[in-house]
Each structure stands twice: as structure tokens, then as C-alpha cells.
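sorry for the late reply, my laptop died twice this morning and i had to redo everyting from scratch. anyway the thing you sent over, i finally got around to it. pasting the sequence first so we're on the same page, its 199 residues, then the predicted structure underneath. double check i copied it right bc i was rushing
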Amino acid sequence: MFTVATHARALIVLLLSFVAHDVVASDLDGKWAATLYAARISSEPGWEDVLVNPFGADYLDAFLAVAGVSRGYAHYNGGALQLEAEGQIAYAFGDQQYWELNVVPVVVRWQRFPWSRTLATSAAFGLGLSYTTELPDIEVELEGESRKLLVYWVAELTAGLPEKSWSVSLRLHHRSVAYGLMGDEGGMNAVGLGVRWQF
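ok and here's the structure:
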């Protein structure tokens, strides 16, 4: 009998296989990018609550400072769609202190919109794993329990001037058990604002 956890595991294996194939098959000529952002952890029960109303959600005195580096490894539809891999290091501060490492082998970025000649915009979603050096107290308070190793995903919107390497980045930073894949309860949501630099 297939459970949600079984489906989640199968999806992750499929995505990682897809990425491995593209990394081997491509010439890795994509651009590098660095993203720096500060995020505040929300006390909302689900990521949907934060995604729908990020500025009206309730937040805690718990923050993240995040640095990420990514590189595109495949392009489709004339460059409108890019696949990237990203690595992040984050420091949690405020009501809790620990380091967080995130590996995101699958980032899907759409970068062609009708207004792109006036305002260069991209929308991205990435899936990977997250590891914290300490068990996050706030995740335990919010969810009842948590783990150091969880599934991680990120949703991002960027906007900047055309032909410029800098853009503003708005991110939803999410750790979770992925519907039972990594445990029963755990995780958190944080909304971040920062900059993305392509080089």
C-alpha cells in the first residue's frame, strides 16, 4: 500500500535522478549567482498561511541570515526556464542560535514575463535537504517535535533592472517533514528579503 511518505520518497528519488542526468549531460555553462537574505521565522501553522499573506502573518523574535550560491545547469524554451543547483549556509539568531546547511539540487526558475524588458523578473522553486547543528527549539515549540535533518524547499521572486546583475529577492524558506517522509512533526517557515547577484 502506497502512503504519502512513499510517494514523497519516490518523487525525491525521481527528481535527484533527473538532476544527476542533466548534470552529466550538460556542459555546466550556466551563470553563477549569489543570494544574501535575512529572514524572520513565522509562528503560522502552515506554509500556505505565510505564502498567501507574508506581510500579514505572525512572526517570532527568531531570525536567519542566509548566504546561498547557485549555478544553472540546464536551459529550456530559449532560456526562459533554467534548472539550477544551490547550496546555502544560514545562521539562526534571536530566540535561538544554530547553524543550518541546505543543499538544493533542484531549483526550477522561470525568467521570462511580458514585462521583462521593463522589470527583469524571475520566479523559482527549489527542493532539497536541510540540516541544523542544533535541534531548533522553536520548531519543537511550534510543531511539538522536530529533527535536525528535514526536507527543505524554497520559493523565490526576484525583480531588478534589465541588463543589470543585481536584483531584489523575496524568499519563503521552508523546513518540513514532507508529509511524514522525515518524521511525524517538525519544521518552520521564514520569510526573507535580500539581494541576488548573477556573475
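Helices lie at 4-25, 47-52, 137-143.
thats about all i looked at so far, will dig more tmrw
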